[in-house]
Amino acid sequence: MSTQPAKGQLQQLRHDEQQAGPAVARLLRAAAPAAERVLG
């Protein structure tokens, strides 16, 4: 089994993370007040 496909997969995953980063951050900021109400 070669390590090359896994490496490509990892790079793709990292790329996806960078693309999703801002959207996830926005989602977390939007959810934070509701979570604080529920938890607090």
Please provide a written account of the structure.
This protein has one helix at residues 4-39. The chain has 40 residues and is mainly alpha-helical. The protein has one domain (1-40). The termini are far apart.
Question: Topology of this protein?
Answer:
Blueprint: H1 4-39
Sequence stretches where pLDDT stays below 50 over 5 or more residues: none
Number of spatially distinct domains: 1
Query: What portion of the residues fall into strands of 2 or more residues?
Result: under 5%
- Which whole number gives the mean pLDDT? 81
Structural class: mainly alpha
Largest sheet: none
Order of helices and strands: H
**Total of DSSP H or I helical runs spanning 4+ residues:** 1
Helix content: over 70%
Task: Give the termini separation.
Answer: 50 Å
Gyration radius, to the nearest Å?
16 Å
Q: How many distinct beta strands? A: 0
Taken from the alpha-carbon principal axes, the silhouette is elongated
List its salient traits.
mainly alpha; 90% helix; elongated
Write a concise synopsis of the structure shown.
The protein has 40 residues and is mostly helical. It is built from one helix and no strands.
